Amino acid sequence: MSLEDLSLFEILNLCRRAGGACLQRLRDISANVDPFDRPLRTFLERLQEDALRNVERTAEFAARMGPTDEPARGEPLYQQHLNRHFQSFGTGFGEGWLDRDAAMHFAECVEEESSRFYWKLSHLAPDDESARFFATAAEGDASRLARLRAVLL
User: Fold this and answer.
1) pLDDT digits over 32-79, tens only?
2) Which of 54, 89, 122, 141 could be joined to 134 by an S-S link, Cβ 3.0–4.6 Å?
3) C-alpha torsion sign, points 57, 61, 64, 67
């Protein structure tokens, strides 16, 4: 089943899972960097804070859209979409600490895949309010991606 076949309720459920997965991936990256590289850890903590705010905004938006009696199609469907749109999440970090280049690469992957995901949703949204919400999320990720690519630690 493609994203186009999902209802807004299902898309928002998927977004909650995607936001949580992005946050967890950033936490995993941070947990695998050299504990003595304070500037890198601080930078990754900021990215995690941004990801948490995205999760909270999605929950607020879903609550504003109102309750629905529509049943969710189930976790396997959501996991299928997460695997398709966040392919880097299946990539392991290898042995030892992540150096700065590797950590920044993995963080870039999170932001890039998230931005692409939300841009796609903004084009599939069933209404203008949802389209604006998804476009704003995509722009935030794109902004963080640009910052990631420009930062020198």
Assistant:
1) 999 999 999 999 999 999 999 999 999 999 998 876 555 566 778 889
2) 122
3) negative
Rounded-to-10 torsion of CA 5, 9, 11, 13: -130
Round to whole Å and give the CA distance between 9 and 81: 15
The CATH number of the domain where 110 resides is what? 1.20.1260.10
DSSP-derived letter for residue 18 is: H
Beta bridge partners of 98: 33
Q: Cα separation of 72 and 111, whole Å? A: 27
Per residue in 85-108, pLDDT (tens digit) is: 999 999 999 888 999 999 999 999
Give the domain range for residue 19. 3-150
Residue bearing the bigger pLDDT, 15 or 149? 15
In total, how many domains does the chain have? 1
Which stretches of the chain are DSSP H helices?
8-31, 38-64, 75-85, 100-124, 128-150
CA dihedral 61, 67, 73, 75 (to 10 degrees): 50
